[in-house]
Every structure is written in C-alpha cells, then in structure tokens.
C-alpha cells in the first residue's frame, strides 16, 4: 500500500494520540495526556505546524478527539467508520489547501489556517483514516493482540499480518512465554 509522507505522519499521530490512553504493560489503563505540557510534547513530537499558544480548552478538545479516534479502531464496519470520520472531519472545519513547507514537496493540509490543535488533528488524522477506508484497507486499523496491551496501531505490512503493536516487546514477550511453557511441559 502506497502512503505518502503526510498521510503516514497523520496516521502516526492518530495512533500515538489514541495510545496516550491505552492499557499499560501491566494491563491497567493509564493516561499520559493529562496536562498542557503533555499536549505541547505531543505537538512537538509530531511536528504539528501552525499551533499557537495552548490553553486548557485545547487539552479538553484534544482528549475528545482522542476518544473519537479510539472509536475508529473499534468500528464494526466501513460504514460505521465512514460515519464517524465524516462527522469528525466536518466538525474540524476542513479547508484543503496545497502547501510546500519545510523541504517537503507539494502536499495537502486539511486543517483551516488558524485551526486549533484539536481541529488540526481531527482534520489531518480523519482524512488519513478516510484514505484507508477509500483504499479498502480498514482492516489495517488494529489493536495489539497481546492480552495485557491493547494499544492501537496501523498494520502497514505487505501481507497485513502484524499482530502486535511492537514485535520486540509485546510479540517477543508472548513468544518467550510460549517457549517457556513448552519447555516446562516437556520437562514434566
């Protein structure tokens, strides 16, 4: 599946945003988006452009967008996902425009000039997820299959076979546990 740079960045931001409230390694939920410093760190980590001074309203709005993106990962079918994304993108007041900033060739931004951080994330992230729906690739939106994880990820593997948010942690942990269980059973 061919995904351009901006779409990939938007998908990465959506996944990271959803995972700010995902279950931790010990199973219990944790929220890392609890204050303006966390929102600022998120904006910097994802190089979200055109964001001015952040306020408490931004924290509340970003957390609401996060919840709606989380719903996208649990949508039953493409129609439900499309309805959710249509509403999210429309409420963000999208204004598609061509731009060529920061050394990147021409690409489309979907957020309106002066948009809040939540509107920016909703517009760009919503459109990135919409591209997956249009391409018939909704099943690439996944949750980690590790029993104590549940983090969101977008499976961009060629054969759509990725099962874990991170094969080096969740996947490896489960494989090691299965190996130890087999060795224990063989020893008894």
Query: How far from one another are the termini?
Result: 47 Å
Give the overall average pLDDT. Answer: 88
What is the CATH third-level topology name? Jann2411-like fold
* Known CATH architecture: Orthogonal Bundle
N-to-C order of helices and strands = HHHHEEHEEH
What count of helical segments does DSSP give? 6
What is the CATH homologous superfamily assignment?
Jann2411-like domain
Subunit arrangement of the protein:
single chain
Tally of discrete structural domains = 1
Top-tier CATH class:
Mainly Alpha
In short:
This protein has about 190 residues and is mainly alpha-helical.
How would you characterize the overall build of this protein?
It contains 6 helices and 4 strands. The strands form 2 sheets. The chain has a two-stranded antiparallel sheet with strand order 1-2. By secondary structure, it is mainly alpha-helical. α1 (5-18) packs across α3 (56-72), α1 packs across α5 (117-134) and α3 runs parallel beside α5 (117-134). The chain has helices at 5-18, 36-45, 56-72, 78-91, 117-134, 167-187; strands at 97-99, 107-109, 141-143, 152-154. The longest helix is centred in the C-terminal third of the chain and has 21 residues, at 167-187.
Helix/strand layout:
Elements: H1 5-18, H2 36-45, H3 56-72, H4 78-91, E1 97-99, E2 107-109, H5 117-134, E3 141-143, E4 152-154, H6 167-187
Provide keyphrases for this structure.
50% helix; two-stranded antiparallel sheet; mainly alpha; Jann2411-like fold; 188 residues; single chain; two-stranded antiparallel ribbon
């Amino acid at each position: 599946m061919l995904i351009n740079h901006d779409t990939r960045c938007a998908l990465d931001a959506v996944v990271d945003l959803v995972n700010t409230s995902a279950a931790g390694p010990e199973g219990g939920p944790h929220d890392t988006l609890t204050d303006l410093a966390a929102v600022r760190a998120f904006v910097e980590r994802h190089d979200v452009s055109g964001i001015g001074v952040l306020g408490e309203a931004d924290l509340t709005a970003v957390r609401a967008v996060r919840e709606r993106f989380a719903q996208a990962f649990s949508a039953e079918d493409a129609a439900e996902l499309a309805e959710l994304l249509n509403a999210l993108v429309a409420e963000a007041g999208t204004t598609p425009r061509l731009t060529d900033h920061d050394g990147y060739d021409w690409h489309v931004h979907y957020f309106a000039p002066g948009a809040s951080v939540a509107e920016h994330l909703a517009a760009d992230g919503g459109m990135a997820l919409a591209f997956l729906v249009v391409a018939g690739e909704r099943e690439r939106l996944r949750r980690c299959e590790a029993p104590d994880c549940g983090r969101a990820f977008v499976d961009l593997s060629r054969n759509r076979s990725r099962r874990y948010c991170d094969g080096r942690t969740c996947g490896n942990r489960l494989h090691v546990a299965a190996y130890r269980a087999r060795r224990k059973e063989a020893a008894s």
